[in-house]
Amino acid sequence: MQGGVAVALLERPQRAVTGGPFLLSATTLPIADRAATVLPPRRAWAMRPVAAAVLMTTAGSGVLIEVARAQSGAEGPGLQVSPESSARFGPLIKADDGGGPLVIEADRLSGRPDLETLAEGAVEFRRGPLILKADRVEYQQQSDLARATGNVEISRNGNVYRGPEVQLKVDRFEGYFQSPSYHFGRTNAGGQADRFDFLDENRGVAYGATYTSCPAPDPAWLLSTDRVLLDTAAEEGTAEGAVLRFYGVPILAAPTLSFPLTEKRKSGWLPPSIKLDNKSGFELGVPYYWDIAPNRDATLTPSVMTRRGAALDTEFRYLEPGYLGSMQAYMLPDDRVANRSRWALNLGHEARWEGATVGEIDYGLALQRTSDDNFWKDFAGTLPSLTPRLLPTDAYARRRFDHGWGDTVAYTRVQTWQVLQDLDPASRIVSPYQREPQIGLRQRGAASGLEWQWETEANRFSNDDASLQTGSRLHALGSLARPWSPTGAPGWTLTPRVSFNAATYDLDQPLADGRRSASRVIPTVSLDSAWIFERDSNAFGRELTQTLEPRLFYVNTPFRDQTGLPNFDSAANDFNFTSIYSDNVFSGVDRVSDANQVTAGVTTRFLDRTTGAEALRLGIAQRTLLRTQRITADGTPITQRWSDLLLLGSTHLVRNWYLDSTVQYNSDTSRVARSISSVRYSPGPLRTLSTSYRYTRNASEQVELGWQWPLNAPAREHAAAVQARDAQMLEDFEGRSRLAPLAGCPGAWYTVGRVNYSRRDSRITDSIVGFEYDSGCWIGRIVAERLSTGRSQATTRLLFQLELIGLSRLGSNPLKVLRENVPGYRLLRDDSPVVAPALSTP
To answer: Which contiguous run of DSSP H or E holds residue 682?
Structure first.
């Protein structure tokens, strides 16, 4: 072998054969000599898998075969192969092809050296993932013409191409594939063409080509073209006369369109988007994708709204070695409803600068702005934000210093807000303070058994509300702790801690006593004692490990009068299982609660001994005041000795059921002050029902219902198939990529949704209701979404999408809305990794 890969030509014997495969040679040799005969190379010819789309998937993976004579050089009569003899064709494969040995099998093999080679009867070429089958394959060496006829079939990497005849001039790679059909395993789609012409090594032309994932003879959707040019060197395809039909009705057409042949990005028009809502009417947008450079791109979406007029939505993204970011701008020059121009801007930039003296500095900018207060109502979802009425501008820079015992961070920041107010006084919100600027230094570390953290920071606070106090604040926070185990073994940790909160103010408006400056220092001591006990348990028919985790937490903070001081950034913490073990009931710096209190609680967990998954959790905690707390959120001292009792419970003991509940119980009034409870039933993928109940006494009471559920027998069969596939993927997690995509189930109907109902207001607040239909080769989705924008106002949108399996999605995209709002929602065609049920959590 001369750097090649061996090729064995095997004629199927007419009688049973024992022993190894026969070795074929150009001359009849004694059996003892056959294995030692290696013929020298003569001339190479290529045989490639060819079909209408072969050029896209197999170009460059050709097979080079050398046809050789015996070393004796005897011309002799034509080579005739019989069951009693075989021949070996010596080094045959292009060195860089890397596909392993080539095996050629046929009922009859014959030929004449340097003239022709002929294989007949169930011919099969195999090399690595490539298999070519035909009734007859011949090669004319003088004309360099290879021809395969009769039931030609080529398969490679799950793609299959069939046709009656392939003819190819090998060296020039010119020829044709007559009436090919093709099927792509990755998309489970294919089509056929009248003819495919090979122009050269890199270019081919398909005439009358079609593509669909629907079954013949009458596919529900069909993409047809007059002519398709494929150029693998340019990594581009060009289609002429392309028409997309849905049930025979043309829905998209293009005289000429181009598309990439690889995963490489390419500029061009994207599928149109369609929206319908009660604010803007019907909206049609046609996105254009601009591949500016490998590290830059942009998407421009011109759109037309029946009520408001024409708009342009643009997004620009960039990625460099030292920075990355994006910019999104929405422009509506003439809103016919509001009679003015409307716009929105969303910027994000993150970068790292490396200097010889200062080291690495991280810096960035996040900015969101709109043209008016009502933008968030009229164009819901345009700006991605968890607080659509509070739009931030945040510029920062920070430098981190890493030490062996911890890290130190120096930082500076400017933060401002655009507050979108409502005309209804009851719906107005308090404008947060702006930091112009914020400069600080913080450190945390541990050494010699001690743990410490501190920060010092200077802020300049301003506010658009002239009635609020403004000014500057310099503060310092710090704590020192010494965790240790009294028993010297794990299971019991005792942590004494001392901390302080110091602040000084320089104000623009005088305080009640006329001062423009003030300061205070507040110390705190605490002691945290936590235990963890474990024992093996057999409960609920399972082998479990039970933990018992008691905790005692003591805090003592002296009273310091803060009523006359400004409050720039403090607010009361939510009362829950985390905050009850904190030393301050406020967040931020400006307010520190006085305390002389003990918090006691205990949690027990049941863990699956095999997987570690939590099957059951129960907890209880309560705070005891040893003196009246005078610093409170509403200014009213708390004299109640015992705080509300916190109870929690969550379980997945019952198969397919997930329960979670937290209750805040007031023992003085013997009434529930607040509770959050949820129940989810999920017997498998695509089948989820959930409900939750949120209650706050004298404030709110809400019920939420969410679901994704099959409505008919085909949908239930499809859900069962997805569940079986998930189980298979879990058994062979590393080999899941070898599994073929799961097909749909024709005629499957699903319903999805989430509804929030306010019992206090007796109205539905936010809601999503939709249906999904899987025909087997296309999926239709229609989703109605209602977003509450005020006590008596709401924006209602209708989202509908047509997903052509194996091609694209047309219309508005409700998938993001469904994923974010429907608990446990899953795509009908989802081949993403799954999580073992034993590792899932409620």
So the answer is: strand 671-684
Biggest CA pair distance of the chain = 121
CB 497, CB 484: distance < 8 Å = no
For residues 151 and 159, the answer to whether their CB atoms sit within 8 Å is no
Task: Give the long-range contacts of residues 756-765, CB within 8 A, separation 24 or more.
Answer: 756/702, 756/703, 756/704, 757/702, 757/703, 757/704, 757/705, 758/700, 758/701, 758/702, 759/701, 759/702, 759/703, 760/699, 760/700, 760/701, 760/702, 761/791, 765/702
End-to-end CA distance of the chain: 62
Cα 697 to Cα 439: distance, rounded to the nearest angstrom:
41
Query: 716 - beta bridge partners?
Result: none
Q: Which tokens is 783 given?
A: 């989703």
What pTM, to 2 d.p., does this model score? Answer: 0.76
| Nearest partner of 702 among 685, 678, 720, judged by Cα | 678
Residue 364, amino acid: G
Distance CA 777, CA 249 (A): 16
Q: Is 585 helix (H, G, I), strand (E, B) or coil?
A: coil
Structure tokens at 534: 């474990």
148 membership: H or E segment, kind and range: strand 145-156
Range from 76-90, 369-383, 479-493, 769-783 carrying the lowest mean pLDDT: 76-90
Question: Residue 253 has what DSSP assignment?
Answer: E
Q: Which two tokens stand for residue 353?
A: 């600068």
Q: Tell me how far apart the alpha carbons of residues 88 and 228 are, in angstroms, rounded to a whole number.
A: 41
On the question of a cis peptide bond just before residue 217, with omega within 30 degrees of 0, the verdict is: yes
> Quick one: tokens of 507?
């104000």
Cβ atoms of 221 and 245 closer than 8 Å? yes
Q: In one letter, which amino acid is 578?
A: T
- Cα 644 to chain centroid distance, Å, stands at 41
Give 673-728 pLDDT, tens digit per residue: 999 999 999 998 999 999 999 999 989 999 999 999 999 999 999 888 888 888 87
Cα distance between residue 227 and residue 208, in whole Å: 6
Distance CA 349, CA 324 (A): 6
Query: Around Cβ 283, how many Cβ atoms within 10 Å?
Result: 19
How far apart, in Å, are the Cα atoms of 783 and each of 249, 382, 611, 829?
24, 18, 38, 18
Instruction: Compute the chain's Rg from CA coordinates.
Output: 37
CA 257 to chain centroid, in Å, comes to: 29
């920062």: which residue's tokens? 396
Distance in angstroms (rounded) separating the CA atoms of residues 500 and 525? 9
Cβ count near 797 (within 10 Å): 22
Nearest CA to 438 out of 404, 467, 410 is that of 410
How distant, in Å, are the alpha carbons of 227, 308, 326, 339, 393 from that of 315? Answer: 33, 21, 7, 26, 18
pLDDT in tens, 211-232: 888 988 889 999 999 998 888 7
- Report the C-alpha gap between 431 and 451 in whole angstroms: 37
**Which residue, 14, 19, 128, 35, is CA-closest to 90?**
35
Residues 325 and 322: their CA atoms lie apart, in Å, by 11
Nearest alpha-carbon partner for 479 in 495, 503, 457: 495
Evaluate whether 375 touches 390 at the Cβ level (below 8 Å): no
The span from the CA of 506 to the CA of 660, in Å, is 48
Across residues 309-321, what is the average pLDDT?
95
Which two three-digit tokens encode residue 94? 């292009």
Whole-angstrom CA distances from 381 to 106, 277, 378 are: 63, 12, 9
